[in-house]
Amino acid sequence: MQLSVFVLVLFCLCLSVYGNNKHDGSIKHDDPMLNTETPNYKEYCVIGAGPGGLQIAYFLENAGRDYIVFEKGYGAGTFYLKYPIHRLLISINKRNTGKTNKEFNFRHDWNSLVSHDESLQMTKYSKDFFPPADVLVQYLNDYATKLNLKVQYNSTMHDILKRKDGLFQMWDQHNNAYTCKYVIMATGIATPNKPEFPGSELVDGYEDLPIDLDEYEGQSVLIIGRGNAGHETAQH
């Protein structure tokens, strides 16, 4: 379990931010005022309220740290309102392992986050081996609510910069400034991987695929890529 948590934390720290620079430029990044004011200061700023962001928030909450989670959506796990597009997770939900060891059983539950609340387990939310994505959305929102995690929704952060005094500063879509000592990125992979090749402009991306099977009747279909999305699409 310790190794799994370490990998999750490392994954969150290594993710990148995607999006355009939206700051209006009225505040210069080298302005000395940025070294004297600390608007809306938090020691830890976590960006993204998906599984990674919420898991980090849980540990920060239990450690009594000063933190906030920024989420651009109106709730936790909004990524899973669209993906996977065929609406079944590919992470297993094995409710019966034949064992009584909790650690062993938890290793066969690929969806639940770590917490002290045993009611917050996906095995209690769905009996399906591959649960519906909508169930995971409900689970993540319950996780954030029941554990009193400090999540600020409808907050799109941009222009993250490191000031001369070593603090980070950023702004939301309303140009409200926030300052923090540490930034943890948990935004996930937000842009599709679109390889370029002759004719690639004619290809439909996974993110735009219709799920109505009538759309494919009598058609020859070529799937480029044999990762999870490719296999999910082929099975559908």
From TrEMBL:
Pfam families to which the protein is assigned, alphabetical: Pyr_redox_3 (PF13738)
GO aspect biological process, one term: ERAD pathway
Positions of transmembrane segments: none
Signal peptide: 1-19
A single GO cellular-component term on record: endoplasmic reticulum lumen
Coiled-coil regions, chain positions: none
Record keywords, A-Z: Oxidoreductase, Signal
UniProt xrefs under InterPro entries: Auxin_biosynth/cation_transpt, FAD/NAD-bd_sf
Tagged with keyword Electron transport: no
GO MF, one example: flavin adenine dinucleotide binding
Annotated protein name in UniProt: FAD/NAD(P)-binding domain-containing protein
